[in-house]
Specification:
The chain has 263 residues and is mostly beta strands. It contains one helix and 21 strands. The two termini are 21 Å apart.
Length: 263
């Protein structure tokens, strides 16, 4: 879903992405526009026929602003992804992470979902037992968590933070309604990766994500770890579909409180 092969191949890539050649999908050469490093300010990934986006390593939106928003070197990034866009990773080291204080706006439609997937899925070699092909999606926020790094820090306080599984990054704070953006009609296919034993990237990881974040109509397919795992936070979501997870479909830790309707 999301791409209709055929037609001409765009010659160039949108601003903020690197032209790394083409990838052949169902016999059509598609322009491969790569994301890497840290995204600050506003970046839009527009939909263009026969153009796809790829992740090179851990791609981070923003730099952590801390639980109180004043961390040194913190910077906001806002990533907007248009309906129909496809983003792929090639290995477990490739993931997309939204730092505290930053946002993702990925709102597809029922007929034009936004798809995060793997290179093998693009190339047509993913099968029904394929899992763990790229890192997945990680959202970090400033909503309360109940267990912190350091002694004597009360859970749910502005300085209560923890370090996320699978990727360097901190989450937690005292902002229940923190807003990490919007996800709608998003598919995450073949994600998940074991970095070290008991330290894994899931399909979607939501850590300290607040109730100002909008999540509806999301599917995670064939994750090698959990489908979605919440570490604390207060985010609500509706219409959640998990298929083929190798560990839990839904997993909660660190005092998550929220609503999951139509799962």
């Amino acid at each position: 879903g999301g791409e209709t092969p055929g037609g001409s191949t765009p010659a160039s890539c949108p601003t903020g992405t690197a032209n790394v050649g083409t990838i052949t999908v169902s016999g059509t050469a598609m322009r491969n526009c790569q994301l890497s490093g840290v995204i600050t300010g506003n970046l839009v990934l527009p939909y263009t026929a026969n153009l796809v986006y790829s992740l090179s390593g851990g791609v981070r939106v923003g730099r952590d602003v801390g639980g109180d928003g004043t961390k040194a070197d913190g910077a906001q990034g806002i990533l907007t992804i248009e309906p129909g866009v496809v983003v792929f990773g090639s290995s477990g080291a490739d993931f997309l992470l939204i730092e505290r204080g930053s946002q993702i706006f990925a709102e597809g439609t029922a007929t034009r979902p936004i798809v995060f997937t793997s290179r093998s899925n693009m190339e047509g070699t993913a099968g029904e037992s394929t899992i763990g092909q790229w890192g997945g999606l990680v959202l970090l926020g400033r909503a309360p968590i109940h267990t912190c790094i350091g002694a004597g820090i009360p859970g749910g306080s502005v300085n209560c933070e923890s370090k996320v599984e699978g990727a360097e990054g901190f989450y937690g704070g005292a902002t229940p309604a923190d807003n990490s953006g919007r996800l709608a009609y998003v598919q995450v296919r073949y994600p998940g990766f074991e970095v070290t034993p008991n330290n894994e990237l899931n399909g979607i990881t939501m850590a300290g994500v607040g109730s100002g974040t909008f999540v509806e109509h999301v599917q995670v397919h064939n994750s090698s770890d959990d489908g979605i795992e919440w570490f604390g936070g207060r985010v609500n979501q509706r219409y959640v579909v998990i298929t083929g997870a190798d560990d839990d479909s839904l997993d909660t830790d660190f005092g998550y409180r929220g609503k999951i309707q139509f799962g």
